[in-house]
Structures are given as C-alpha cells and as structure tokens.
Amino acid sequence: xxxxxxxxxxxxxxxxxxxxxxxxxxxxxxxxxxxxxxxxxxxxxxxxxxxxxxxxxxxxxxxxxxxxxxxxxxxxxxxxxxxxxxxxxxxxxxxxxxxxxxxxxxxxxxxxxxxxxxxxxxxxxxxxxxxxxxxxxxxxxxxxxxxxxxxxxxxxxxxxxxxxxxxxxxxxxxxxxxxxxxxxxxxxxxxxxxxxxxxxxxxxxxxxxxxxxxxxxxxxxxxxxxxxxxxxxxxxxxxxxxxxxxxxxxxxxxxxxxxxxxxxxxxxxxxxxxxxxxxxxxxx
Length: 284
Fold this sequence. Notes:
Layout: E1 3-11, E2 14-23, E3 28-33, H1 38-51, E4 55-64, E5 71-73, H2 75-92, H3 99-103, E6 109-111, H4 118-188, H5 195-208, H6 212-230, H7 236-256, H8 260-280
C-alpha cells in the first residue's frame, strides 16, 4: 500500500525528523537512510517491521545535533605558534606578533561540538518515528477503505458467477442425456436404443462433467475472502493464497466443462479474478 508519514520530535535539545514513504510491494522491503549507528538502525527497523506488514518502505532520518557548545584555547599550540611567529618577525626585522594573530592560527582555538551516541539519539528518533508511522497508517487506512469497497464488489461478482455455474451444473445431467439420445438416434436411424444402456452412458458423461465438489470449495473460498476483506489487520498474504485456490477451482470447472455457456462464465470469472489478484498486491 502507498502512503507517506512525517514525524518531528525534540528531546534534550536534539531535534529529529523522520519521513516514511511506502509503495506497493509483495513483501516488506525496508530501506533506512540517514541512521547513525547499528544499534539505532536495529531499533528503527524493529519498530517499522512491527507496524508495517507489506510494502517497499523507505525511512529517512534527519538529526540536528547541538553544535559549538563550548570552546577552549590550546595553550601548547598557542605557545608554539607564538614562538614561530616571533622567529619569523625577527628574521624579517618586523614587529612581533600580537595576541589576535596568535589566536588566529589553526589549532589554537578549539570548538567542542556535542557528540551523541546511539543511546542518546534513540529516544528522540523513536518519538519522531512513532509520529511518522501514525501519519503513514492514517494515509494507508484511507487507501484500505477504498480497497475494501472495490474488492467487496469484485468478490460479489465472482459469487454471482458461482451461482450461475451451480445452476447450469444442476441441469447438466438432463442436458447430457438428451444430447446423447439425439446423437445415437441420428446415428442408428430407426434402430431401437436400449433405455438402460442410454441411461448408463449418460450417467458416465454426467459423472465426468460433475463439478459439484469444485463449486462447494469455490463457495467456501469466496466466503473466506469476504470475511478477510471485512477484517482488520494484515490479510494480504491470506488473500493471495485464497486467490490461488479460487483460480485452481475455476480451472478445474473449465476443464470439466460440457457446456459452452458454462465455459463462457468460467472465462469471465477468471478475468475478474485476475483483476482481484492485481488489486490484492496493494493490500497490507
């Protein structure tokens, strides 16, 4: 599922901003950018994986550290710099160096920047991350609601197709018997046909074309799919499995088909199922 979330937090003068972007992916593909230190990376990764089940997720972390919190003069460096400048002034027969010139030499004045390790950054980064995950979840929830409506309609269309298949399958034995009777009479002309043998052959054809078991399983799969679509929590992978099973039952019904009308319904149903398969890749 697609989405974006941004979170900002400040703890102890340290400010963290976290941006999370998510696009569709069959599994969870997590990329972390800007993270400092393996311990912090592990903590952020664990927090994201506990909140996101599927998707290609990119987490960008920005940390603003406090800088220049103090400075001091390196006296050893200052004395050495002064001695060098005095020697140079004597050689050039110039005036000796003043204090400002000594202080301007590299290494004499040292700034002390605050250095934060992973443990110090962890609270502020996780606070910003939680805010970003909340915003991401809200955006993904809106997309999820639209997906629920779409999938509910599409699974309803498959249920209509299943009902039509069941109705045709119930009439199929009588149709096969009449069709077999007509063919035999045309072939044998005025020859009398044994009704018992005709009934036996018709029963064999009907048994080969029987799709009752497949339609029962198909009804069960569709009911489970509708339950999952209406459920909360991650259901994408379960729907993936059910779609495979629904496709398998439709394929079997199509291969057993002894009626053109039944075959046409199966073809349409498989086309609809393929659209569902594509849409389910967007489901968490």
